[in-house]
Amino acid sequence: MLNETAVAVLEQSSATEPEKRIRDRSATERAILKAAKNLLAEEGFQNFGINAVARRAGCDKQLIYRYYGGLDGLVEAIGTDLGNWVKDRIPEDAGGMFLLTYGDLMERLALLFLEALRDDPLMRRVVAWEVSENTEQVKRLSEARSKSLGQWLDRMRGSLTPPKGIDVAAVNALIFASIQHLVLAAAAGGQCAGLVLKNNKDWEKAAIALKRLVRGVYG
Amino acid sequence: MLNETAVAVLEQSSATEPEKRIRDRSATERAILKAAKNLLAEEGFQNFGINAVARRAGCDKQLIYRYYGGLDGLVEAIGTDLGNWVKDRIPEDAGGMFLLTYGDLMERLALLFLEALRDDPLMRRVVAWEVSENTEQVKRLSEARSKSLGQWLDRMRGSLTPPKGIDVAAVNALIFASIQHLVLAAAAGGQCAGLVLKNNKDWEKAAIALKRLVRGVYG
DNA sequence: ACTGTTACTCACCGATTGGTGACAGACCGG
DNA sequence: CCGGTCTGTCACCAATCGGTGAGTAACAGT
Fold it and tell me: What's the CA gap between A177 and B180, in Å, rounded?
């Protein structure tokens, strides 16, 4: 990539010059991070490595070592980005709606989370990564993500009091676990436990079932 | 491994001769399959390759190509084994119990499935594999698994009629999805969505929450 | 214009990967 | 005894991996 532009410059520059991006460290850093995120989102964590990222970023892998301290640092940077995931991807104005009960809230949050996860391939890969490996890299990703998720839940809860006599943490963990696995399985194979999940109609059924599940516990 | 025994034999055989296993095709096939399953269960699908399997089986990788047609065939053999998973790992006598309602049944099945999955590292790796990759190998594994799971559900349902007005397939998919993700996340990082899952007490809480969830929809 | 720093590239390293062809020895039928 | 088949071993291949040291080109300060 970069070579082509450089060569083009040497050859007195042919017609188009697509973004030179020479000797601009911060721009290169951004390009690397972007390349890493796109690569992870599209290819998954299987082929996620120094060489592949450098190849996609169109720069030498040495720069990844220099600017991010290797793959670990790069993953950490991704994790930092991911800390703002809920803030970036999920509308916060749900508090302004008529959420009278804890059940109202959880139903809404569950549906929002389902949709957001369904629309974000990067986040899906990260979640899949979390349940597949246990390296230090992944641990950090996982922590950042669950922390930000927990804060989101707290923030949205506001002054609503959860029902007594129910282990809310455990029940909510199960609910969000079901959403995550459903979306992951669907993204991977188009179905989950025999339930086909491809077109919007399929997903509408799943959403209804999810509502029923939430309403079952929280009324 | 095998070299050591061979050398020992050439050296007029020292004291112990741990299972010679020479020139016995079916035994070698079994050893390879066993090695593959153990490797997958212990190391995960990340480092699951021809070389690693051959190394663990103590034979040349060429034999894997000859006897199984490469990794694909080997994975398929594992999948065939996995087709009997529910039969092997989950007691079938639950039908003889007092399961009066569909809710009784699903609660029992959910708990059985949770426990069985928790106790089987190989199956956990396979499930994690399913949501992480979409190769032909994994597809076959996934199909065999979900098919056998579906048959199990049908078999256990017996003459019990599911409640009307509920999309049982979708709800059950969500329930089993929650179990799978919970167990996977716990096995990977010891927690799921902030809920710590390490000792038996933690799991007891999760089981209670699971019951509540099932009872919520199915009464 | 000289100098030093910054941004970047390149060439190479050892290790490991999936895959293949050639070979050696045990066994069996003639 | 010989010849062929079966089982298993070994040596080698190109490709890729993560990682490093050395070198080059562009810029800034003086």
Answer: 8
- Tell me which of A77, A101, A136 is where a domain ends: A77
Of the ranges A9-18, B58-67, B155-164, the best mean pLDDT one: B58-67
Residue B152, chain A, CB below 8 Å: the answer is: no
Residue A170: pLDDT above 90?
Answer: yes
Distance CA A194, CA B72 (A): 23
Pick from A67, A69, A84: which is nearest to A32 by CA?
Answer: A67
C-alpha R_g of chain A: 21
B56 touches strand C (CB under 7 A): no
Same domain assignment for residues A68 and A89: no
Residue A19 beta carbon within 7 A of nucleic strand C = no
What CA–CA distance (Å, rounded) separates A206 from A66? 46
Residue range B150-170: average pLDDT?
Answer: 95
CB within 8 A of A218, min separation 6: which ones? Answer: A101, A102, A103, A106, A107, A163, A166, A171
Range of the domain at B26: 16-80
pLDDT tier at A94 (50, 70, 90 boundaries)? low
Overall average pLDDT of the B75-79 stretch = 98
Any idea of the CA torsion for A193, A198, A204, A208, to the nearest 10 degrees? 10
d(CA B99, CA A19): 68
Dist CA A193 CA B158 (whole Å): 19
pLDDT of residue A3: 40
Q: How far apart are the C-alpha atoms of B166 and A122, rounded to whole Å?
A: 33
Q: How many domains does chain B have?
A: 2
Give the model's confidence band at A66: pLDDT under 50 very low, under 70 low, under 90 confident, else very high. very high
- Here the tokens at position A203 are 């997903």
Query: Is A47 within 8 Å of chain B by CB?
Result: no
Question: Which pLDDT score is estimated for B13?
Answer: 37
